[in-house]
Every structure is written in structure tokens, then in C-alpha cells.
Amino acid sequence: MKSRAFYWTVRTITVMALLAGISALAQYDSHKTFNGVINAYSPQTAATLTAPATGPYEVRGPWTLKLNRYTDKANFSAALNMELSDGWAITLNNSNFDPNARGAHTHHITMIDANVTWTATGFQISGPATVTLNGSAAPVSPTPLVIEITGGSLVKYSNITLTFGSPGSKHFGGEPLPGVVRSVTDSN
User: Fold this and answer.
1) Cα torsion angle, 27, 31, 36, 38, sign
2) Beta pairing partners, 111
3) Which of 85, 64, 140 minimizes the C-alpha distance to 107?
4) What are the structural domain ranges in the chain?
5) Using one digit for the tens of pLDDT, what is the confidence trace for 42-79?
6) pTM, whole model, 2 decimals?
7) Residue 67 burial (CB < 10 Å; 0-12/13-18/19+)?
8) Quick one: which of 11, 120, 145, 157 has the fewest CB in 10 Å?
9) Residue 164 and residue 43: Cα distance in Å, rounded?
10) Are the C-beta atoms of 85 and 41 separated by less than 8 Å?
11) Which CATH class is domain 29-187?
């Protein structure tokens, strides 16, 4: 009789342990990694008494975002190329397409432990971003940055926008810079 009670106790504990393991596997992954590209134009600036009109700039490059679902924090990095657009060459540079006149430069943008806010169509992260200019400190760094990743009914996460606050908006513009989400991977 005692051995039968022991058998059922061991069996119950084993089944409960298996169910707990299956339940843990069924939960969402704790980390998601998003990758994609920014493919945008900054707005054209108006001429002032001290500076000529400039832009729009083409803004292009890859980005990565690592989301921690347990802490609702995210790390973001982007490597962006910027140069004055064909529109600038046609309208403000008298159709001169000289590559040396287009102001090509690079930016690395990073955010560490940025706050995550869930929305009806995805999520946004916000916080201070560090920005480099051709590998050195940029005059607009640090700057507030809001990143939104959204999607629709067929693709849950498809779009990204970067919206810079001041002082970054003086260079990148205050309008959202759009891009695409290329992949989302889960990991524990």
C-alpha cells in the first residue's frame, strides 16, 4: 500500500514538472531582435540670413533593435549614410551632380536601455540617443529620439520611424524618418 502511494506521488510530481516545462516553453520569448533599413529623406531647410537653403538629404542604412520583454527596455543601433539628394542637385545646385558637392557623411546612432511603450499597432522606444559624425562626436549628441515599430494584420512588425528631438532635429529634421523591418528573431 505504501509503495502504491509512493508511486502515485512520484507520478504526480513528474506530470506536474512536465506541465510546468511545457507551460514555460509556451510563453513568449524573452528577447526579440529586429533588423531592417532606414530609407528616407530629411526635409529641405529654408534659407536664412546666415545660411543658404539645404537638403533634402538622403538618409540610408541598416539598423538593429534588441528588445527585452522582461524589462521593457531596448537597445538600438543604426549606421546611416547621408548625402544631399538629387532634388537638391536639381533645384539648389543648378543641376550640378558633382559627388564632391553633396556633403556625404556618416552617423552611428545608439540607444541603451531605452524605455518601451506598447501601442495598438506595435511599440515605441524613447530616450537619449548618442550620435556620431564620421566617427567622432556629433554636435547634436546626445539627442532625444523616439523610435516606433508598427505593423498590420498581415505583417505584425513591418515599419520603423525615427523622430529626433532638439538638437538632433536641427540636422535630421523633426519629421519621422521611415524605414522597413526586414526580420524579427526570438531568443531566450
Assistant:
1) positive
2) 76
3) 140
4) 29-187
5) 877 655 555 555 668 889 999 999 999 889 999 999 99
6) 0.77
7) buried
8) 120
9) 13
10) yes
11) mainly beta
